[in-house]
Amino acid sequence: MNELELVINEVKKAVVGKDEHIKKILACILARGHVLLEDIPGVGKTNLTLALSKALSLDFHRMQFTSDVLPGDVTGFIIYNQKTNDFEYKEGPIMCNLFLADEINRTSPKTQSALLEVMEEGRTTVDGITYQLPQPFTVLATQNPYGSAGTQLLPDSQLDHFMVRLTMGYPSLEDEIEILKRKSQENPLDIIRSVCKPQDIIELQKQVDQVYVDDKIYDYIVRIIHKTRDHELIQQGASPRTSISLLKMVKAIAYMDHRNYVIPDDIKKVIYDVLSHRLILTYDAKVKDVVIQDVIKSILKEVKEPKIKI
């Protein structure tokens, strides 16, 4: 059993019935991306993040976003130290390996935008001085899809910085019974072992970079993305950043499936997670109650799947 399988097994001690979500979030970390978890309260979003941070031995910080949170509360600030007679940087909670931005849509656009440089560049600038973030670094943000009171919708530029958007959903009847049993005995988070170190993750990320991608796969990815830009039901298609995100995710998925090369099925496994939050449907599509998943499915049918010799 390799390191990644050990990590997944440890996380499963605290997260029941969400194996695919665990795998995709771990793949996103290996792809150096960021995750948006959009779901109703109480389905285990925070629990999953805590479990991952423990199994991966990551420095973890959680911040509850509210309307009064300022950019400096996230990135840190400069203060005067009377003892040293100098100004010094006080780190914000963003200085960690895994940052949980809880209910990110409840804070102001100004504070949301403070995360843009952090998510894109892996660094933050305070009073003109740039500070590098620890590596590996991943932002895992949550937001509730229903109830807009007191919320600020994430702008397209912010959404585009999340490699994937995932929805956990309700547990099945059997899984919820198992959750109750585990919670009645002890806190499952207390029994999670650390089976991986940050340096191990960095090495795994380098190995993911080396996963082979055939020219036909490159062509397949770009044709799918281009199809979103001239589709009759899509008002705003996917950006080139989407192509890059999709490529990185499929390489990570292939690696986790014990392959050093990408196949078309890898794309199908993550295409909805990578595309769904980046596309804007036309007014007519919304009136007809067309959902983005159906549009993506139609695009996959229209774009010819390449034949890859294994």
UniProtKB/TrEMBL annotation:
TM region(s), chain numbering: none
The ATPase AAA-3 domain, residue ranges: 34-164
SUPFAM superfamilies per record: P-loop containing nucleoside triphosphate hydrolases
PANTHER family recorded: METHANOL DEHYDROGENASE REGULATOR, MOXR FAMILY PROTEIN
Signal sequence interval, chain numbering: none
Stated name of the protein: MoxR family ATPase
InterPro entries found in the cross-reference section: ATPase_AAA-3, CbbQ/NirQ/NorQ/GpvN, ChlI/MoxR_AAA_lid, P-loop_NTPase
ChlI/MoxR AAA lid domain: residues covered: 227-296
The organism's place on the tree of life at top rank: Bacteria
